[in-house]
Amino acid sequence: MLKVNLIDVDLKFPNLALMKISAYWKRQGAVVTLNGSRGDLNFVSCVFTKNKEKALKIAESYCAEAGGTGIDLKSQLPHEVEHICPDYMLYPKLNYSIGFTSRGCIRKCSFCIVPEKEGYIKEWSSLEEFVRHKKVILLDNNFLASTRWKFKLLEMIERNLIVDFNQGLDIRLIDEEKAALIVKLNPPYLRFAWDDVKDEAAVRKGISILKKEGFPIDRHRIGFYVLVGYNSTLEEDLHRANTLHGMDINTHVQLYKGSQKTAKILARWANRPWYWMTSSFEEFEPIKNLRQYCELFE
User: Fold this and answer.
1) Exposed, middle or buried: residue 258 (CB in 10 Å: 0-12, 13-18, 19+)?
2) Second label for 56, Cα 20 to 30 Å away, from 212, 258, 272, 282?
């Protein structure tokens, strides 16, 4: 019997590509292992570029085929593998469904790999293709930009799904109709992004609409990804964080590569509600110490 060994080099999040490869080969009657001994066929998947060298070394030693965003942004699964229900048993403790209903994005953010990797937004999979658990993690990069956003939300509501829009929703696309359906779906936690200080008016408007339609605006139910260290000053980064904190909204600060030490301290402070609820950034001990240290050399 054919043995297929799949190798997950990231090990931080269930690897969707490997789950689909597993499902495909099991249909062919193969025995599939995850991070096991060498098989008749071996596949290595790498999502993060920091693990590329490790993945290529493993692929060489296993005589394996290597793929994934971390190795090649343009790598894709064959159609018959891509559009198959993932093998959820590959990760036995997994208790949620995972997948994309759309790929790509309408935005062209210069810091983001999605435009290069996936291009403009396009429909991808139906919920029926991959949903096998009540809890669903969606990986769509801009769900609300899909032309079928309304039909999908209505289906989720009808099926009483518990949905995590893991990559975040686009706050700039929020209107009364979308907000009302989101409230009806009632996700446990909503994620958005505020990457440019110039989008403040749109951010405030989107939050206001959600609040008006009845979504709880508090740190237990809503958070924003906040990119820092990319075409922004520390003052602009801090302004975004303070603005959101002032509305009792969580911040998930993301550091752009090469960020300065002050940005790293900002992330440490802003990503922990206990810190930003009890101390301003200026009074946060690490930044006070850093500034006192720098003053010694002025």
Assistant:
1) exposed
2) 258
- Asked whether residue 235 is assigned to any structural domain, the reply reads no
Q: Residue 256 has what DSSP assignment?
A: P
- Order of strands across the sheet that contains 190-193: 190-193, 222-228, 250-255
Structure tokens at 129: 């293709």
Q: What is the pTM of this model?
A: 0.91
Report the pLDDT value the prediction gives residue 297, as an integer from 0 to 100.
40
**Domain range for 16:** 1-73
The whole-angstrom separation of Cα 290 and Cα 33 is 49
Share of the chain above pLDDT 70, in %: 97
Instruction: Let me know if residue 164 belongs to a domain.
Output: no
Do 85 and 130 touch, CB atoms closer than 8 A? yes
| Any domain includes 186 | no
pLDDT in tens, 168-199: 999 999 999 999 999 999 999 999 999 999 99
> Is residue 181 included in any domain, yes or no?
no
